[in-house]
Automatic annotation (TrEMBL):
Pfam families: Methyltransf_12
Record-annotated Methyltransferase type domain positions: 152-241
Upper lineage: Bacteria, Pseudomonadati, Pseudomonadota, Alphaproteobacteria, Hyphomicrobiales
Protein's recorded name: Methyltransferase type 12 domain-containing protein
InterPro entries: Methyltransf_12 (IPR013217), SAM-dependent_MTases_sf (IPR029063), TPR-like_helical_dom_sf (IPR011990)
Entry-linked CDD domains: AdoMet_MTases
Length: 325
């Protein structure tokens, strides 16, 4: 979502929206809404202004008006950069759809990349890479593993997970949907290779060559686990490990979309999805992953293993078919 997305091409409309932002930052949402309305009279097809209008109406408690703004936004935003569909779904005003909202997630993290680590680690107490790495090391010790031949870090971001894995992995690959995130992590020289791709598409294009796959705070943007695990398991060698985190809920739904536009997964449904995918569950724990507006976010930490007997015919007889021990 580039800065250009926030210009209507009409200087007066732009100035009114800039002033509306200032008022909203001070908590005067009513005045901000009025100014956004004036701007939209001048530039009625300005998607970014409709997005702001929906946000300010929501914060002012005008949910019906917010939904109306997001419906207009959805019609204007063909690429889904502003996440209108997700915002409607989070307010039970439409379906979330299946899979990742690629346009929205890519735009979100392209915009977020320069301040990602400062915001997530410094301000929100983000702990997922540390927590997952501890579980991985404990399972390595229990299984008698000394390292991994090849690891795949899904949604690698700025390399927070990769930095912890590096010394125990011979070949470390990173995949992320955001080019800006990849640019940030490329400067650190953590990964042997980096790929900009949507994770399910990337996994579907691979053979069974990884003995570790990680996804730290990534699947919270993917919705249902089934399609992800269906793509992930064939990418693992027999005996390979997968470690990931999810945001959790205790309700009856398998998964639901929170107002944060992140998915929360049911604890029982997550266990079921792992079993259906043919994975052996090694660790399954709940923990506080981070804080959001001062409130703790509880999540699930998973380490699972692909049974060693599930080696594909393509890997039979190849060197390094199992996890390094």
């Amino acid at each position: 979502m580039s800065k250009a997305s926030f210009s209507s091409g009409d200087l007066i409309a732009d100035r009114r929206v800039d002033y509306a932002r200032m008022l909203a930052e001070g908590g005067d949402y009513s005045a901000a809404i009025d100014l956004i309305g004036q701007a939209l009279e001048l530039a009625p097809d300005w998607a970014a202004a409709w997005d702001l209008l929906g946000s300010y109406e929501e914060k002012a408690g005008n949910v019906a008006a917010a939904i109306a703004a997001w419906r207009r936004l959805e019609a204007l935003d063909d690429e889904g950069l502003f996440g209108a569909r997700l915002k409607l779904a989070a307010h039970k005003a439409g379906p979330a759809g299946d899979g990742t909202a690629v346009g929205y997630v890519e735009a979100l993290f392209d915009q977020y990349a320069p301040k990602f680590e400062d915001a997530l680690v410094g301000k929100l107490g983000y702990r997922v890479p540390e927590l997952l790495d501890t579980l991985i090391q404990e399972e390595m010790a229990r299984l008698g593993l000394t390292g991994f031949d090849k690891a795949l870090d899904l949604g690698c971001g700025t390399g927070l997970m990769g930095a912890r894995l590096r010394e125990r992995v011979r070949v470390l690959e990173g995949i992320d949907i955001s080019a800006a995130m990849i640019a940030e992590t490329a400067r650190k020289n953590i990964y042997d290779s980096l790929q900009k791709a949507e994770l399910v598409a990337s996994l579907n294009a691979r053979r069974a060559d990884a003995d570790l796959v990680t996804a730290a705070d990534v699947l919270i943007y993917c919705g249902a686990l089934g399609p992800v695990l269906t793509a992930l398991v064939p990418a693992l060698r027999g005996g390979g490990l997968v470690a990931f985190s999810l945001e959790a809920h205790d309700g009856d739904e398998d998964v639901f979309l929170r107002p944060s536009l992140r998915y929360a997964h049911g604890i029982a449904a997550t266990r079921d999805a792992l079993v259906v995918a043919g994975l052996d569950i090694l660790r399954f724990e709940t923990a506080i992953l981070r804080f959001d507006r001062g409130a703790p976010i509880t999540g699930i930490l998973v380490v699972a293993r692909k049974p060693a007997l599930e080696l594909s015919a393509a890997n039979d007889g190849e060197d390094g078919g199992d996890v390094a021990a």
